Amino acid sequence: MRRADRLFRLVELLRSKRLATGGWLAEQLHVSLRTLYRDIHDLTLSGVPVEGEAGVGYRLRYRLDVPPLLFDAAELEALLVGSRMVQAWGDTDLAQAATAALAKIHNVLPELLRREAQQAQLFVPSPQYQRPQHLTELRRAVRQRRIVGLAYRRADGEASERALWPLGLFFWGQNWTLVGWCLLRDGFRHFRVDRIDRLTVRDERYPEQKGRRLGDFFAALERDEGIKIPRR
After folding, report:
1. What is the domain extent for residue 178?
2. What is the pLDDT of residue 39?
């Protein structure tokens, strides 16, 4: 086990018990007591609020200025690469939110974890990509369950006017797709966001109706296409 991973594990062990003896901690980590004492000392220097002493036990003291959640190396990398993908592929509001979230995470990390985050060698280059014009409005409409009207242009150039209940947005690596219940076709339909020429978000909200929910869309896909869609 890498030393950084061991220190993350040590913090989790301290969080799991009100008071943990040095012997128990050393046994769980498969290290000597001498190594454990050195790790406790380094955690304290890094800003992790460990209190206690050899021969008595240790505990993690929570304070308002210390985040209750710490991350291991893989979790940090997942957060970093996910935020960087949102910065590159999301709309302007999402990109700004991702930047702010990264700053907040960085500011509250103990020094040890901050160094780990800075050394993460995962990058998401900014693509030659035009952000979809209506993505921000559609996200809000999905969240607020507001009916939308849109002027849509298919790949062959055919134009149509639609009204629908927006249910979800999906990113396919190059394009965003809106899935909703189309009031014109009385069924589920999906639309590429970059082909929406005009969007109107109505004040009217749509109800939670069985057969027209996002879960029902997934169930229809699984039934008709014979695929399994993982749920969160």
Report:
1. 135-225
2. 92
Q: What pLDDT does 161 receive? A: 96
Query: Does residue 14 lie within any of the structural domains?
Result: yes
Q: Span 208-232, mean pLDDT?
A: 86
Angle, alpha carbons 203-134-212 (nearest 5°): 55
* Same-domain check for residues 203 and 165: yes
Q: Are 155 and 217 found together in one domain?
A: yes
Is residue 36, in this structure, part of any structural domain at all? yes
Angle, alpha carbons 72-76-78 (nearest 5°): 120
State pLDDT tens for residues 25-57: 999 999 999 999 999 998 888 778 888 877 788
Asked if residue 125 is part of any domain, the answer here is no
Please tell me the total count of domains within the chain. Answer: 3
Please report, for the domain that includes residue 28, its CATH number: 1.10.10.10
Q: Which structure tokens are listed for 175?
A: 């394009």
